Amino acid sequence: MLQKTKHFYAIGLSYKKADAEIRGHFSLSDSSKNLVLEQAKQTGIDSLLLISTCNRTELYGFAEHPYQLIHLLCENTKGTVEEFQKVAYVQKNSDAINHMFKVGSGLDSQILGDFEIISQIKASAKRSKRIGLLDSYLDRLVNSVIRASKRIKTETELSSGATSVSFASVQYILNNVSDISEKNILLFGTGKIGRNTCENLVKHTNNSHITLINRTKTKAEAVAGKFNLLVKNYEDLEDELNSSDIIIVATGAENPTVYKSLISNNSKKLILDLSIPKNVNENVTELDNVTLVHMDDLAKITDDTLEKRKAFVPAAEAIITEVMAEFNSWLDTLKFVPTIQAIKHKLTDLKNSEFTSHRKKIEDFNEEQAELVTNNLIQKITNQFAHHLREDSNTSDESLELIKKIFQLETNTNV
After folding, report:
1. What does the pLDDT average to over 380-393?
2. Are residues 155 and 14 in the same domain?
3. What's the CATH code of the domain at 281?
4. Which domain range does residue 342 map to?
5. Which residues have CB under 8 Å from 270's CB, separation 6+?
6. Which residues pair with 403 in a beta bridge?
7. Would you say residue 413 lies in a domain?
8. Cα–Cα dist 13/87, whole Å
9. What stretches of 53-135 show up as alpha helix (H) in DSSP?
10. Which residues are known to be catalytic?
11. How far apart are CA 237 and CA 215, in angstroms?
C-alpha cells in the first residue's frame, strides 16, 4: 500500500509552452532515464514512469511533493528548476490520471491524433518494471491508457489520414520545392522519425536520389535496403551536405551536428531539423543559400486531414471517460483492501485460538479437517464483506468504520 502522505503526480513540459530549444534542455537520453530511475529508488520513490520525446518530457510517479520529481529531472538534464517553472505543468492525482489518458490517446499531441507517444509509454513502463519501479497502480493505469488508445484507433477516425511530423516534413517539401524528383536528398539519422520520413519520401516524391547517413552505418543500411537507397559513411557527411539540395536531420545527438562551417558551396539548400535537442546550429541561417525549418514550424501546417480529425475528438473523449471510470472504480476498491485483509487476520487469530483450546479438550481432534472447514468459512466471510463494499460504494466509508469498530481493527485504509 502507498504511504498516506504520497500523491500521484505528473510533472513535465511540452510543445505547448516550451519551444524546441527549451525542450532540448530537458530531453532525457536512455542513459539519463536509467540514472533518474536509479536515483528515484535511492530517494524512496517507489513507482515512476519517464517519457521523453521530441514534443514533451514528463515524469509520472508517487511522491510526497512534486519537487522530488522536478529535482530528479533537472539533476539529469541540462535544464534548471527556474527554467522548468516558467514552462512546466504539475498535475496531481485525478488530474494527473486524466493527463496521461489525453497524452496516450493522441489528444495532447502536437499533431492531433499522432499516436506515436503510446509506444513510448509502453517502452517506459517496461523500463520501470525492469528496475522495480512500476507498482500495481501505475501498471494498471498504463494498461488502461493503452486500452483507451487502441479503442480510439479502432472505433474513431482520429488518426485517419497520413499526418505526423514525418509526413508534415515531406508535405512541406512538396509544397515548397519544385522538380522534387530531380533534387538530391540527404537523410541524416535513421531513428523512428527518420525511418518514417524516409518511407514518406519514397512514397510521395518519386525521387531516386536519396542518400542515408547514420553514425551506425548498419542501421542506415537496414533502412536503405527496404527502399533500395544509397548509404554513405558518417565521415562523408560534409561532402553530402554540400552535394544535397534537401537535408533532413533526424538524429538523437545531444549537441548540433550540422553547422555553418560544414557548408562551403552556394547552392540553394532546404534543411529540415526534426531533432530534439536541435541538431542543426542556427548559424546556418547566416548563409543566404540556406533555409532552415524546424519541426515546430512543420507542426503548424494545417490541412484537410487535421480538420477532419477534430470531428472525432468528442468520440475519443467519450472513450477516455469510459475507460478512466473503470480505472477509478478499481482505484476505489483499493481503499478497503487493508480492512478486508485485517478481517481475515482477525478471523485467523480467532481460529488459531480455538484450535489451541480444542487440542486440549478433544483427544482425537482432527486438526486437518478443521483447518479446511474454517479456512473456507473465513474466505466466504471476507468475500461477503468485500462484495458489500464494492456494491455499496455510496456508503463504503461508513461501512468501513463500522466494520473496524465491530472487529476492533486498527488499520490505515488510505491508499
Report:
1. 75
2. yes
3. 3.40.50.720
4. 335-407
5. 173, 176, 177, 245, 246, 247, 291, 293
6. none
7. no
8. 6
9. 67-75, 81-87, 94-104, 116-130
10. 54
11. 10
